[in-house]
Specification:
By secondary structure, this protein is mainly β. It is built from 2 helices and 24 strands.
């Protein structure tokens, strides 16, 4: 029987704000139990604290619609999570819900490469109602965009993908080109950092280049999270980089870990994950109280889900066609 990749989330409670798993000789993450209604798998977790509550945002991949949506859950004081709720959904794939606060407003910059853009959304009724706040970049094929605040300047770092395979035969999801843009307080791109043109590349490759989470402070250093995608293995592991400079861009490796090294440091709960056969770990994020990762395993493909997905999408197309026919009839009348 065919297999397919499923993603899960695992969390670790921090002892203090300088406590990171990679600074400890021993550590353990615990797989999160979240009711997905049998419809979603979860990846790209981001944590956000508001009013003494911890919210968890993630890509909720819809097994019926066959595309990612932005979902969320509330982590209760006892560590339990509320069932999945959808915060953002479009006709194209969405993932990597990079969430942040700018002045007094809450924004999200999810991956919207399916729309060939980098879009910004603003919370109008947090956490479940968002409106489009602007287009940051258009006509681009980029993923996992983040902001880097370095020496009081804010920069946008994007990972640009090739269409199809990269020139060296690498998978487009593994081999990427990172570009940096300066960013102003109005939410508009001003110019390319360093004064170069748009073809300038600050990083290119498959080892730790593609972003794997929000940048964070460690003591006085800015740390960027990257994905290890070597050997054409998407999300093979995580690489943590210390950012040294933006213009020109420089960073040095701080720590790395592969999924094989991570698998014995996760406490599993699901019947699907109990064997600990990880094939990927590609996102890391944190808040004051927790740090979180995602991990992937291979599962047997469900014929029930496949059949349900076929009828779901067929019905959606039929409804769309009927609406078009009704609209054309009204216009002709």
């Amino acid at each position: 029987m065919k297999t397919e990749k499923y993603y899960y989330l695992a969390i670790r409670k921090r002892n203090n704000e300088q406590d990171h798993f990679f600074l400890n000789k021993s550590f353990s993450f615990q797989e999160l139990k979240i009711n997905c209604y049998g419809r979603y798998w979860l990846a790209d977790p981001f944590l956000f604290e508001r009013d003494h509550k911890v919210y968890l945002f993630f890509e909720a991949y819809d097994l019926l619609a066959k595309r990612g949506k932005i979902g969320y859950s509330l982590i209760k004081e006892n560590g339990e999570c509320t069932p999945v709720r959808i915060a953002l959904s479009r006709s194209y794939h969405m993932s990597f819900p990079y969430i942040f606060q700018w002045n007094n407003d809450i924004y999200m910059m999810p991956e919207t490469c399916g729309n060939n853009s980098v879009q910004l959304f603003k919370a109008v009724n947090f956490p479940n109602k968002w409106e489009e706040a602007g287009m940051i970049l258009s006509d681009v094929f980029v993923c996992d965009s983040i902001f880097l605040k370095f020496k009081e300047k804010v920069n946008l770092l994007v990972s640009e993908m090739y269409h199809g395979k990269a020139p060296n035969g690498k998978l487009f999801s593994c081999w990427v080109k990172n570009k940096v843009f300066s960013f102003d307080q109005k939410g508009l791109i001003k110019n390319k950092a360093g004064g170069g043109n748009e073809t300038d590349i600050v990083l290119e490759g498959d080892y730790g280049v593609r972003n794997g989470g929000a940048a964070f402070k460690l003591h006085d250093s800015l740390i960027r999270v990257g994905q290890d995608c070597t050997d054409n293995l998407y999300g093979k592991g995580l690489v943590f980089w210390k950012v040294l400079n933006i213009e020109p861009y420089q960073e040095e490796e701080l720590y790395s870990i592969t999924c094989d090294e991570m698998k014995n440091n996760i406490l599993y709960h699901s019947k699907f994950t109990k064997d600990g056969n990880l094939v990927g770990v590609h996102t890391y994020n944190l808040c004051k109280k927790y740090e979180i990762i995602d991990f992937s395993i291979l599962r047997r493909k469900s014929w029930c889900v496949s059949i349900s997905s076929f009828f779901y999408r067929a019905c959606r197309k039929l409804i769309k066609c009927c609406r078009c026919l009704l609209k054309n009839r009204r216009l002709s009348d």
